[in-house]
Design a protein that fits this description.
Strand content: 15-25%
Number of helices: 15
Order of helices and strands: HEEEHEHHEEEHHEHHEHHEHEHHEHEEH
Strand order of the largest sheet: 5-6-8-9-10-11-12-13
Radius of gyration: 21 Å
Structural class: alpha/beta
Bound molecules: ligand C2E, magnesium ion
């Protein structure tokens, strides 16, 4: 059993090499689920079903990886109560970590920053992605201490970049609705910057349209308080769904991130290309930086470049990765 992960990693590594097909490099990845006899079951049918469940976990979490079956997967999901208790313990035990995904400037293709994406390293289940716990953290209020931890950790990482000569890289952080509604949000954030010695001008706080279109007057006050700290503000998952242009113009924001749903078929679907193009044009006319998210193909990069988009982010360049790997990549691409 101890060798299984190692062997699976070797399979992944050998599949990762490009295969040449009529002069073009083709890439194949695998999602590997593992069950072990007799630990997980004593006959083939059960073992296959469990390996299958473990494999689906891998697929849900971005593919191209290995996972061993855990009894928790069998009960399909940890119960809400167990999950809540586990999340609380996770904060105390320091089981959260940040992965970083590079943000690439167009057309220069330079790395200009990263988005911090939280992960939970659960000792039983493995790496858990935010879709599985952010909503519950939000409902239970745990998002408040978790959000502060995220900002503090991101500050520590950015300060470490400074020391490595990468101080120009901007760090983007996701804010939850509940965090944003705190009356003393700006003071809380300011204290974290002071404590860590981080420079707020190197940070971008990502908000969503639904958060800011709620109660426009109090939003304006909150946004202005954040801006006085020196941070940059971004509207994430932007779809123009709620926003009216007049509000957007009044909001002191710096960046729009085009929702992934417009990017997926941007190179083939003229409606999506038109929507993305309209967002880029609007953003640029308001003096904002526009970012295309979820870019997986070169054709999407080309289309966004042609539309005048300022930055892109997505698997085409890099998946979110541990902080050490990001640092190594950034030093290499300097
Ligand atoms: P988001 O802020 O829109 O983050 C982008 C998500 O898209 C990330 O998922 C990222 O891994 C994924 N992604 C990036 N490039 C690609 C691509 O090329 N293709 C595809 N299919 N996906 C791509 P992730 O890390 O699972 O995060 C999901 C969401 O959870 C985030 O969406 C954000 O709303 C939330 N989140 C993550 N970290 C935090 C946090 O620290 N605090 C709060 N409040 N929310 C967070
Ligand atoms: Mg985001
Ligand atoms: Mg987004």
């Amino acid at each position: 059993a101890d060798d299984v992960d190692h062997i699976a990693e070797k399979i992944l590594a050998s599949l990762a090499r490009p295969i040449e097909v009529v002069g073009r490099d083709v890439f194949v990845t695998a999602s590997i689920g593992v069950s072990i006899y007799p630990r997980d079951g004593d006959h083939g049918e059960i073992l296959l079903r469990y390996a299958d469940m473990a494999m689906y976990r891998v697929k849900e979490h971005g593919r191209n990886s290995v996972r061993q079956f855990m009894p928790e997967m069998g009960s399909n999901a940890i119960s809400r109560l167990d999950m809540e208790a586990a999340l609380r313990r996770a904060l105390e035990r320091g089981e959260f970590l940040l992965h970083l995904q590079p943000k690439i400037e167009l057309p220069s293709q330079r790395t200009v920053g990263a988005e911090a994406l939280v992960r939970w390293q659960n000792p039983q289940i493995g790496l858990v992605h935010p879709i599985e716990f952010i909503r519950l953290a939000e409902e239970t209020g745990l998002i408040l201490p978790l959000g502060e931890w995220v900002l503090e950790e991101a500050c520590r990482l950015q300060v470490a970049w400074q020391a490595q000569g990468l101080g120009h890289l901007k760090m983007a952080i996701n804010m939850s609705a509940r965090q944003f509604r705190q009356d003393d949000l700006a003071e809380r954030i300011s204290r974290i910057f002071q404590r860590t010695g981080a420079d707020p001008t190197h940070f971008i706080l990502e908000l969503t349209e639904s958060m800011v279109m709620h109660d426009v007057e109090s939003t304006l006050a909150a946004l202005r308080a954040l801006k006085t700290l020196g941070v940059n503000l971004s509207l994430d998952d932007f779809r123009t769904g709620y926003s009216s242009l007049s509000y957007l113009r009044r909001f002191p924001i710096d960046e729009l991130k085009i929702d992934r749903s417009f990017i997926a078929d941007i190179h083939t679907n003229t409606d999506d290309a038109a929507s993305a193009g309209a967002i880029v044009a609007m953003g640029r006319s308001l003096g904002l930086s526009v970012v295309g998210e979820g870019v997986e193909k070169k054709e999407q990069v080309d289309k966004l470049t042609a539309l005048g988009c300022n930055q892109v982010q997505g698997y085409f360049y890099a998946r979110p990765m541990p902080a050490g790997a990001f640092l190594a990549r950034a030093l290499e691409h300097m």
